[in-house]
Amino acid sequence: MSEPQVWVLVGAFIAAIATMITVTLTSFNRQLTSFRNEMSARFDAVDTRFDAMQGVMDLRFAQLDNKVEDIDRDVAALSRRVMGD
């Protein structure tokens, strides 16, 4: 093989490697973008569920707070009755 033929083979090899790297990086970028979009959609769904749960929990805590206030009022009334205050 002559020297020009060797340089042609080296150039073809470098071009093939560069093409493979470009295709691989492009494919990886597409997969990463797809994964990012899917995870974003899933986190949005989880956020929506947590927001719904937060409304329910706020209501339940308000109910619990009212019950505690009622018990506090009843204990204070009993204390006044027993202690004569």
Please write out the topology.
Elements: H1 3-83
General description of the model:
This protein is mainly α and 85 residues long. Helix content is 95%, strand content 0%. It is built from 1 helix and no strands. The longest helix has 81 residues, at 3-83. The radius of gyration is 36 Å and the shape is rod-shaped. The termini are far apart. The model has no long low-confidence stretch (mean pLDDT 94).
Order of helices and strands: H
| Major sheet | none
The number of helical segments is: 1
Number of strands: 0
The percentage helix is: over 70%
Inertia-based shape? rod-shaped
Beta fraction of the residues? under 5%
Structural class: mainly alpha
Average predicted confidence as pLDDT: 94
The separation of the N and C termini measures 115 Å
Q: What value does the Rg take, in angstroms?
A: 36 Å
Top keywords for this entry?
0% strand, mainly alpha, 1 helix, 85 residues
Structure summarized in a few sentences:
The chain is mainly alpha-helical and 85 residues long. The chain has one helix spanning 3-83.
